[in-house]
Write a structure and sequence with these properties.
The complex is a heterodimer of chains A (519) and B (358). Chain A has 519 residues and is of the alpha/beta class. Chain A has 18 helices and 21 strands. In chain A, a hairpin with a 2-residue loop joins strand 1 and strand 2. The longest helix of chain A is centred in the middle third of the chain and has 16 residues, at 175-190. Chain A starts with 8 loop residues before the first strand and ends with a helix. Chain B contains 13 helices and 4 strands. With 358 residues, chain B is mainly α. In chain B, 69% of the residues lie in helices and 6% in strands. Chain B folds into 2 domains: 1-39 and 325-358, no CATH class; 60-324, Orthogonal Bundle (ABC transporter involved in vitamin B12 uptake, BtuC). The longest helix of chain B has 27 residues, at 115-141. The chains are: A alpha/beta (519), B mainly alpha (358).
């Protein structure tokens, strides 16, 4: 009777529940993964993706629920027993020892005993077979992030896994590395190894996956055939509401004068873990968004700090606001001049988590209140002064608060970011500099934040957007440059640069000058 | 298995229940230990906890004892709020006392009581200078302030010992390591109450606390400088983002806390001793660390914490005098009290769940 052949199920989990205190991270989740299938797990931050895969890999124990592998129930009590059941996992943050060689790192994780020489041969064999090229005798600290990921994958493949779990594997890769990874994953799947692929990037899922299960607030809300869907549908299912498109209307009559300029800026790194900035030349005009792409840890933090004034320039004329040198001005003086920065870290940098919203407003507003004629009120300049302004920021930016004047850590990531943005924009800046403004923010909030950036440039302000999210960079920017190892590529209009070029620049494999010669 | 889950917000109910529960648990375990050691538990408890309140002059002695603890504790509060770990208040106390005392001994015949204000200022400078050493080492050379401030305590102890045995020894002291007595102008008098006379050792120095508590409360809660200190302690990167200078704040809080420790020393010695001697502090600088934390780094809390600690210390003296209980035993009791008061704080911040071991 059955004409359609049912795929063979490798792993079937039913009614998985897991809670932390009052917060239930997974509620009655059912999921089944077929053999040789690439199964994507999609959801916003905090939807319960990581919790679920940690349960599969034995890092966490479910409160209730059963897991079957090949139709027999198993109890996965530790990563060790997960590996014995044929489950391997590549974590988002790699678990390699930087001081050891590739082979040594693989040896440590191996459950079976093997001679070092045989191990190296086997690594060679695997890396040939799967095109995961990596030198087994190199130290991990000398490898690029993409290579490190290959080591992690090889490490899993040594165990002949039946299921490979990949937690947000592309968040640190360049576009070229991503397409290589996808090729490998597809080959792996066609050889019969199932892949559970976690991501919140919709394009990737449509491109790569066979099935996609969408999680929302700990519940599994749909399992869809990924080949028959599109990103818009996935996004709306994931968020649970319609996504409004960005309105991109450029005003043509804005005079595009230079707003901010960096000229030959050098800054030696302050700690061993920092990045030195090398001969940075950057120019952003009024009414423009300049996107700075790059893989994390290539000097974005240092660039941000020197732009904000948190660290001092070596020369006053390294930074010019219009024509005024401001290299020696501190962050408060730059705020007065109309330069606002929104740092990457929302808590502990842009805000103090255990302080109220009024106090956090006061944090960057305190210098506005003193008046020449009132000594007593100047002496008692305190967060009470920011009360009205903080209420206005909350109201104008649709910041959802659990109570009036809550602590910053009571707000969700997206709402906190809306507050931080609102706090800066209420100062009516001439130049606004954002670092990863939508990182870890839900799609609804991200859209509204991106719209704000566009509005800002439409109203004639200069915007610098430092982001790892290439999609975001291309969607918003007028001009694009790439930061790699503390050096900035040449700035090109968005029409003259492709994602592939940006990818190569991110990996340090292309000089902008080469590109210019070929075009 | 016991699991702790953080509460979103500090629980208001537990803020009240926890200290009460802590006191009851302390009493319970105190009774247990005293019984075990063969002392009459109820009488011991009475001596330690209640005897300091039994007479009005004893009550006023609590405030006398609490006075230096509260002053030093208030200064330390500023440091600890900024995440600067000044462990050397004891040394700053000694050096403030020594500098002000040496100054007073230069004027053997001064009588005006205004002189005491000059001494307080000099005491502040002395303590602040001693705290300036860890401050400058930390900000310029990134040397850990915990070690430097603590080590300087022992330097200060030996230095005052040398001074009162050597240069400043009173030739009439029959070989005792004591300085000449302070001049009249350098002595803080006891407060006379009409019709009653003096209440224990209650002296005018107490008035400084009445001034210090509200001022320090205003400072930490209602001024920009206080705000800067709080931000630096909670999130140093946010302080940088706001444009607050970390080094300036660090130096300021160390100078203020060192200065206040010096002031406490001047008041303690001018009111209760009246001359320099090798031991001027009796551990006030260290006990004040406990006072600052027990008072939750809050001026009003520190006042109450100072009173609690002073009570138990005096109670321990009483127990030793009337029942012969050695101080180590009452010290143990003090430890139990602190243990429960501080663990009680956990209940305000965390929910605790007991579950079966799986």
């Amino acid at each position: 009777m059955a004409i359609k052949k049912e795929p063979e199920i490798l792993l079937k989990a039913s009614k998985i529940n897991k809670s932390f205190g009052n917060f239930s991270a997974n509620k009655d989740i059912d999921i089944s993964i077929a053999k040789g299938e690439i199964h994507a797990l999609l959801g916003e931050n905090g939807a319960g993706k990581s919790t679920l895969v940690k349960i599969f890999y034995g890092v966490l124990k479910p409160d209730t629920g059963t897991i079957e592998i090949n139709n027999s129930e198993v109890s996965i009590s530790s990563p060790n027993s997960a590996r014995k059941n044929g489950i391997g996992m590549v974590f988002q943050h790699f678990s390699l020892f930087p001081a050891l060689t590739v082979a040594e790192n693989i040896l440590i994780a191996l459950d079976k005993k093997i001679k070092f020489k045989d191990l190296i041969l086997e690594i060679f064999k695997l890396s040939e077979e799967w095109e995961l090229f990596v030198d087994p005798l190199k130290r991990v600290s000398e490898l690029s992030v993409g290579e490190q990921q290959r080591v992690e994958i090889i490490r899993c493949l040594m165990q002949n896994p039946k299921l490979l779990i990949m937690d947000e594997p592309t968040s640190v890769l360049t576009p070229q590395e991503i397409s290589n990874l996808f090729k490998i994953l597809k080959r792996l799947a066609s050889s019969g190894c199932s892949i559970l692929y976690i991501s919140h990037k919709l394009e990737e899922i449509v491109e790569l996956a066979d099935q996609v299960t969408i999680l929302k607030s700990g519940k599994s809300i749909a399992t869809i055939d990924a080949k028959k869907t599109n990103t818009k549908f996935l996004a709306e299912t994931m968020v649970g509401k319609e996504i409004t498109d960005l309105k991109k209307t450029k005003l043509m009559n804005v005079t595009k004068n230079t707003a901010l300029e960096l000229k030959g800026l050098n800054k030696a790194k302050e700690t061993d873990f920092g990045v030195s900035l090398k001969n940075i030349n950057l120019k952003v005009n009024y009414g423009e968004i300049l996107g700075v792409a790059g893989i994390a840890g290539n000097g974005q933090v240092e660039l941000m700090e020197i732009l904000s004034g948190e660290t001092q320039c070596e020369k006053e004329n390294h930074i010019l606001l219009e024509t005024q040198p401001i290299g020696f001005k501190n962050i408060t003086e730059r705020r007065r001049l109309g330069i606002e920065t929104i740092p990457e870290e929302r808590t502990l940098h842009a805000t103090v988590p255990n302080f109220t919203i009024a106090e956090n407003t006061f944090l960057t507003y305190f210098f506005k209140y003193p008046k020449a004629d009132n000594i007593i009120s100047n002496l008692l300049n305190n967060p009470q002064n920011s009360k009205i302004e903080s209420e206005n920021i909350i109201k104008d930016n649709d910041v959802r608060c659990p109570e009036a004047n809550p602590l910053a850590n009571q707000l969700s990531g997206g709402n906190l970011q809306k507050f931080i943005l609102g706090r800066s924009l209420a100062n009516d800046p001439k130049v606004a500099i954002f670092s990863q403004p939508t990182w870890g923010v839900d799609i609804g909030a991200a859209t509204s934040i991106r719209q704000k950036l566009l509005n800002l440039s439409n109203s004639g302000k200069a915007v610098i957007l430092i982001s790892q999210d290439l999609e975001e960079i291309f969607e918003l920017s007028d001009k694009i440059c790439v930061i790699n190892d503390g050096a900035l590529s040449k700035i090109l209009p968005v029409a003259q640069i492709t994602a592939e070029d940006v990818g190569l620049l991110m990996g340090g494999k292309l000089k902008t000058s080469d590109k210019l010669e070929t075009t | 298995m016991i699991t702790f889950t953080p509460r979103d917000k500090v629980s208001k109910n537990w803020t009240i229940i926890a200290p009460i529960l802590s006191i009851f648990l302390t009493i319970f375990f105190g009774l247990l230990i005293f019984t075990f050691l063969g002392y009459n538990p109820l009488e011991t408890l009475y001596q330690v906890f209640l005897s300091p309140f039994s007479r009005i002059d004893r009550i006023s002695d609590i405030f006398v004892k609490a006075c230096p603890l509260v002053i030093v504790g208030t200064g330390l509060m500023l440091c600890f709020r900024a995440n600067v770990w000044n462990i050397g208040a004891e040394g700053q106390f000694i050096m403030g006392t020594l500098l002000a005392g040496s100054f007073a001994l230069l004027f053997p015949s001064v009588e005006t009581k205004f002189f005491i204000f000059i001494m307080i200022v000099i005491g502040f400078i002395g303590g602040a200078l001693w705290a300036f050493i860890p401050a400058i080492l930390k900000t310029k050379l990134n040397v850990n302030e915990i070690l430097v401030s603590l080590m300087l305590v022992y330097v200060a102890m030996l230095f005052i010992d040398f001074i009162v045995r050597g240069p400043l020894r009173d030739p009439m002291s029959f070989g005792f390591p004591l300085s000449k007595p302070y001049p009249d102008g350098a002595i803080i008098n006891k407060i006379p109450f009409p019709g009653i006379g003096y209440l224990g050792q209650l002296h005018y120095g107490i008035l400084l606390i009445l001034l210090l508590i509200p001022i320090s409360w205003l400072f930490v809660n209602k001024t920009l400088s206080g705000f800067k200190i709080n931000v630096l302690g909670s999130a140093p990167k946010a302080a940088k983002f706001a444009g607050f200078k970390q080094n300036t704040i660090t130096i300021t809080v160390l100078l203020l806390s060192g200065g206040l420790a010096g002031v406490a020393g001047v008041i303690e010695v001018s009111a209760n001793i009246g001359q320099l001697q090798p031991e001027v502090s009796f551990g006030y600088g260290f006990t004040a660390i406990i006072v600052a934390f027990l008072g939750r780094l809050n001026p009003i809390g520190i006042l109450f914490a100072g009173i609690i600690i002073a009570t138990v210390k005096l109670g321990a003296d009483n127990a030793q005098m009337s029942m012969g209980i050695p101080k180590v035993v009452t010290g143990l009791f003090e430890g139990i009290l602190l243990f429960f008061l501080l663990t009680g704080e956990t209940l305000q911040k965390y929910k605790i769940k007991w579950s079966k071991v799986t």
